[in-house]
């Protein structure tokens, strides 16, 4: 995952402290792979994954649309060259004044998952298009996204009926099968739910046109994952099975799958120690941890590949932790991480697959440690 361009940058620039380096060539390759895998689906890049201006400008130039979670992200997408018509306000939890601001900027497509949110959109963005998010179980995902977002399909019918009654355009249904979804068949049940909502609304004279199939497309960490083409084939098969020849307009929202493997974090070993002479595991402390950008190691959900200059030598299990004075800043303890015995203080390591959800999770100077610096090449 550390491309030669990234390695050359680190060797030449020698940046001090932990930093993320993102290779735009990989981002472009990933965009083209998604476009080829699902040629009839509009790509709405999930800005929250990595909002670097260089990434957004590249994707805007390639024709990407943007899934935004806040007014700030909407403004970033506009600044990068996207038009308001290419932006979706995809967060189901929005302040009414933020809806109004987005609408004033020209955004007309909003996510909802309850009648109360519909009422806010109707007041702040009259006439807007809305799609209702339905719950999925997230089985097969490393980072499930159920419960907090979405409603059951039967409630989605009521939500969209209320949207129609309040003068909004009930446009369709969305779902998210869970981040880092490794099961290519995970979309099938959610597409069936979407079809159920489509039919129920059609019976009431409301014609839906859009299925937003969300993100979930994975990046490779320690295990191989299916290629974009495999997801495309499975999703198209499910759409055809449930909708027949009358396929709806579709959207996908890749974030991790777009930028995850394009980035590498350079970090440094600060300390190597044991807690007792009998301790089976060494503790390896890095100059980056959960609060510096590696929040997705929470519950050890994401296990990043870690490359060292001693790879190939004998290893032993290690607990990996960050540098802050917070006991929660431990990355891998439940399942210790095998690292070379010769790894020592001052050694640099590369944490691969870190192009997504690292800079955006980095804390603002917790313990006086600066947020994760990033370079886009």
UniProtKB/TrEMBL annotation:
Gene3D superfamilies: Alanine racemase (3.20.20.10), Lyase, Ornithine Decarboxylase, Chain A, domain 1 (2.40.37.10)
GO term, biological process aspect, one: putrescine biosynthetic process from arginine, via ornithine
GO cellular component: cytoplasm
This protein's UniProt keywords: Lyase, Pyridoxal phosphate
Reactions this protein catalyses: L-ornithine + H(+) = putrescine + CO2
Active site: 325
Molecular-function GO terms, alphabetical: ornithine decarboxylase activity
EC number in record: 4.1.1.17
Pathway(s) this gene product operates in, as recorded in its UniProt entry: Amine and polyamine biosynthesis; putrescine biosynthesis via L-ornithine pathway; putrescine from L-ornithine: step 1/1
UniProt modified residues of type N6-(pyridoxal phosphate)lysine: 48
Keyword Lyase included in the entry's annotation: yes
Listed InterPro entries: Ala_racemase/Decarboxylase_C, De-COase2_CS, De-COase2_N, De-COase2_pyr-phos_BS, Orn/DAP/Arg_de-COase, Orn_de-COase, PLP-binding_barrel
Requisite cofactors: pyridoxal 5'-phosphate
Record domain Orn/DAP/Arg decarboxylase 2 N-terminal: where: 27-259
Domain of life: Bacteria
Similarity field: Belongs to the Orn/Lys/Arg decarboxylase class-II family.
Name by which UniProt lists this protein: ornithine decarboxylase
Gene: odc2
């Amino acid at each position: 995952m550390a491309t030669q361009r990234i390695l050359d940058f680190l060797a030449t620039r020698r940046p001090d402290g932990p930093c993320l380096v993102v290779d735009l060539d990989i981002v472009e390759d990933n965009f083209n792979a998604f476009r080829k895998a699902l040629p009839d689906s509009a790509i709405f890049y999930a800005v929250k994954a990595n909002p670097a201006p260089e990434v957004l400008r590249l994707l805007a130039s390639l024709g990407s649309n943007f899934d935004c979670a806040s007014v700030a992200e909407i403004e970033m997408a506009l600044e990068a060259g996207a038009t308001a018509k290419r932006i979706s306000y995809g967060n189901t939890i929005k302040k009414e004044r933020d809806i109004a601001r987005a609408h004033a900027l020209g955004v007309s497509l909003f996510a909802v998952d309850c009648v109360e949110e519909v009422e806010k959109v109707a007041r702040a963005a009259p006439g807007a298009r809305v799609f209702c998010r339905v719950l999925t179980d997230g089985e097969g995902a490393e980072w499930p996204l159920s419960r907090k977002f979405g409603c059951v399909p039967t409630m989605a019918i009521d939500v969209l009926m209320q949207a129609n009654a309040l003068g909004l355009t009930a446009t369709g249904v969305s779902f998210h099968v869970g981040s880092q979804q490794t099961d290519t068949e995970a979309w099938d049940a959610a597409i069936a739910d979407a079809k159920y909502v489509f039919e129920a609304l059609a019976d009431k004279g409301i014609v839906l046109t859009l299925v937003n199939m969300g993100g979930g497309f994975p990046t490779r960490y320690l295990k191989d994952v299916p290629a974009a083409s495999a997801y495309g084939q499975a999703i198209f098969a499910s759409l055809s099975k449930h909708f027949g020849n009358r396929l709806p307009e579709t959207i996908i929202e890749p974030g991790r799958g777009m930028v995850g493997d394009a980035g590498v974090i350079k970090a440094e070993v600060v300390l190597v120690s044991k807690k007792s002479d009998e301790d089976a595991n060494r503790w390896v402390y890095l100059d980056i941890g959960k609060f510096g950008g590696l929040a997705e190691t929470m519950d050890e959900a994401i296990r990043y590949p870690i490359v060292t200059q001693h790879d190939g030598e004998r290893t032993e299990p290690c607990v990996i932790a960050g540098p802050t004075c917070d006991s929660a800043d431990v990355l891998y303890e439940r399942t210790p991480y095998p690292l070379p015995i010769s790894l020592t203080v001052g050694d640099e390591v590369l944490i691969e697959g870190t192009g997504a959800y690292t800079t955006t999770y980095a804390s603002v100077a917790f313990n006086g440690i600066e947020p994760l610096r990033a370079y886009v090449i």
